[in-house]
Amino acid sequence: MSVVLNMIIIGLVLLIAYWWSNQGFFSSLLHLIAVIVAGALAFAFWEPLAIDILLGGGTFDGYAMGLTLAGLFAFFLAALRWTGDSIVRANIMIPQGPDMAMGAVAGLCSGILTIGFTLTALGFFHGPHEFMGYQGFGRERGRAGVMSEMGPRLWIPVDKWTNDFYEWASVSTLYPNLGSSPLKHYNPELYKQASLMRDNLNEGEGQISMPTDGLSFLSSSDSPVLHPEGTRYWVLKTLFNPSSMDFGKQLSLASSQVRLVGKASDQDSPEILHPIYWTQDPHEGDAVMRMGYAFDDRMNYASSVPGRKEAEFWFIFESRDDTFDPNYLQVRGTRFDVPPSSSMPGSSQDIQAMLQQGAGGAADNRRLGGDIGSNELKLVHVIDRVPNFSPSRNRVPGTMAMVDGYFESGFLRMQKSERGSTSRALQAEGVYSEPGTQVVYVDVSRNQPTWLGGQLEDKTDIADELALIDSYGNKYTPIGYVFYFGLEVEISLDPRSSIKNPSQLPVLSQTQEQRLLLVFQVTGGVKITSFRLGHILIGSMDVDIPAR
After folding, report:
1. What is the pTM of this model?
2. Using CB atoms within 10 A as the burial measure, which of 92, 245, 319, 326 is most buried?
3. Can you tell me the mean pLDDT for 209-219?
């Protein structure tokens, strides 16, 4: 479907360029000016109208932001075109060739800005995160506070180009002298927000807006903004009021919907932080040191207690350097000015200990090099069938190539089927192995002695190779992995290139129970003796691989 969306976008841009090429350069230029001014006016009136006036806590809130932005752009564009046509009643005569060529260039710019503006506005409509196969940006699994591109990209990123143009204009030719609040500083990277707002509960079922009275900063003797001296951490103490509840029920906030924007001047871009961690309803003792929760998994949300009409969250952000100075907190697109910060008891080591404890982490004191091949540990499996996953062959997506009912190469992500829900004749057989080889799985989940993180990260280089070693000294690198998270299973297989190092694997959550299996293709009739990462022995074993 993403191909269809890209073809539609390119087709519309070219259609607009073609239309204005036939109208001539002067008419095309007037239209481009109208588009630029209409977009600037739409951005100027968008937030006051949508957030201050239209958001009222009802179902319409999920559409107010997108509908207002698109509606204002269409209204101002129509008004400017009518005004221009009324004032300028004659065309400028230019030779036909240059006239059409320059008209096409101006029309192409108009098309890019118009379609880019439309895509941004559509992103602020309540709905699923994925639209025609395109997701845009979302939370990166296993990396708290990191937002990245998800899935297929746009062939021509008209939304980004449009956003970049208006950000540049807001600090240069179209600088708002009255409010001194340019788009680049006060609502940066709007094209990313358009998809991040919908990366929420159940892939888009959550609310995407926040009324201005939905949040307040906690009032106490200390500032609600804490910044330990000598650290890059910022702690914001917030109280979400009854009007903030999702559709009047339970509030569920994803880290993608909360961001702390720093101060910037001139044409500099502000630093944008998403929370890495939150504590909930802290009321006991030195509350910031209480165990909380890490935003390191797509299933982790800051959620209010069911039945309560208020929720207290302390969000923790980590900046890239010591120069960060917060300007405002933005929650679901609504800005809240950040009060002055105060120092906070506790050192950087205290904060790190809290983050590690709340993330379910602990010092990695395991002994590397021990026996991992025993039947009791169940870490090594010699079997074709994928453990606990037997989907119907009819449900396997086209991104995964199959040979005689076996997964051969490619990628899939599917819901786990209930045991017995698919007849045995229709079930996928497992992972394909070349004649004379066997499939071997090695469990490298976080709670296992074969986990690839912790002390292994400190002792190895990022380029070090993963390998099983047999009794003859032959090395076997993984051809893929099987990743179990929540109710889903992800399989990636590439027997031609294989996986060289852990950086090519999914990042395991510190808070969610997940399972990661490496897939190897090993010659039959040999004995596997060790599992290594570079020069480090992760574990030894004595596993016979049957001949076939």
Report:
1. 0.73
2. 326
3. 88
Q: What is the mean pLDDT of residues 410-435?
A: 80
Q: Which residue has the tokens 């500099």?
A: 268
> Is the pLDDT reported for residue 285 higher than 50?
no
Give the containing element (helix H, strand E) for 72: helix 61-87
Q: Are strands 302-303 and 252-253 parallel, antiparallel or unpaired?
A: antiparallel
Q: How far is CA 475 from the centre of its chain?
A: 36
Do the bridges between strand 147-150 and strand 406-415 make them parallel or antiparallel, or are there none, so unpaired?
unpaired
Residues 440 and 494 in one domain: yes
Query: What is the band of 289 on the pLDDT scale with cuts at 50, 70, 90?
Result: very low
Question: Residue 156: helix, strand or coil by DSSP?
Answer: coil
Helix (H, G, I), strand (E, B) or coil at 184: helix
248 and 190 assigned to the same domain:
no
Rounded Cα distance, 56 and 76, in Å: 25
Instruction: Compute the average pLDDT of residues 214-238.
Output: 79
Query: Could you tell me if 146 and 220 lie in one domain?
Result: no
- Domain stops at, among 295, 324, 358: 358
Based on the domain organization, do 176 and 267 belong to the same domain? no
- 67-110 pLDDT, tens per residue? 999 999 999 999 999 998 888 877 788 888 888 999 999 999 99
Quick one: 334 and 451 in the same domain?
A: no
Count of structural domains, the chain: 3
The pLDDT score that the predictor gives to residue 118 is 95
Please give, one letter per residue, the 3-state secondary structure of 399-449: CEEEECCEEEEEEEEEECCCCCCCCHHHECCEECCCCCEEEEEEECCCCCC
Locus of tokens 């969306």: 5
Going by the DSSP 8-state scheme, the letter that residue 271 receives in this structure is P
User: How many Cβ atoms sit within 10 Å of the Cβ of residue 415?
Assistant: 11
